[in-house]
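Structure ticket #2291
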Amino acid sequence: MRSYHAELGGGLEGLVLEDHPEPRPGPREAVVKVRAAALNARELMILRDGRYPLPVKPHLVPACDGAGEVLALGPDVTGVRVGDRVMASVFPRWQAGPFGPEVADQLGGSLDGTLTELAVLPAEALVPIPAHLSFAEAATLPCAAVTAWNALTGGRPLLPGETVLTLGSGGVSLFAIQLARAAGARVISTTSSDEKAERLRSLGAEAVVNYRTDPGWPAEVRRLTAGRGVDHVVEVGGPGTLPRSAEALAVAGELAWVGWLAGGPTTVELAPFMRTVGSIRRLAVGSRLQLQAVARAFEAHSLRPVIDRTFPFEETRAALAHYARDGGVGKTVVVMA
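Resolution: structure written out below.
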């Protein structure tokens, strides 16, 4: 079997493909034949930027998103059978409840990830794939979709008829649109181009504001909500966009801070929050219980992830380079034979 390996800050050119003996599962473990692995911003942070807020092991097998089929089981495994189509929770030991250091071990970070043909995973981390999804589609759910679900439901619960603001057209934002609409909420999105705006509308965004042509976009978001502001913001930009998002937040609204894609400052201007009496909630993906909830939501509403492009396993470097160029709208997925 083959696996890609990399070092923190080693760059995309430092990604190497190595041969290994086929692994055997230990107690409460499963060997999964990985059929697809999806890429996220965290891969670029680890490989290209050399920074990540959680520990990263040497000689890492990158990527935390993956889906496949169970090939073998170790002793004392329950709830999983050989042949099951499964995806794995990003934090295998985080089953439910609040996040903490005791459950912070993560695939593609302190644990080997999914850019491999065969993965040994804790059986308790595995979740069945919704029947209508392909392996490539299912591989996109554990990180970005769970993050979007946690942003919408993990704190102040999203209620039908409320309004959600999403930023840009990255994976978390696209999933947030789909999940918010499925919950009966209204969605307003921001984007940088008219082409992307049309794609966001097709996914369920009721209104889209171009932040390049309208630098005063928070005021436009307030106008679209009759001055009230939005109940939820799925904030992916970080400190660079967070104060602007807060300007669009309703009284007692919640801003779920899930990423730092915009770069920029490391400090946050709090004055906008003083005006809105809103709250900030920082989060880290989500638990296995939340992955199960996402799977149920996708099955109940026949939702399908948006995939921009797929690459064969042998072209994983090209997949990462494509993703780093911000190619298209939707997820970049590596597909194994």
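Closing remark: Residues 141-153 form the longest helix (13 residues).
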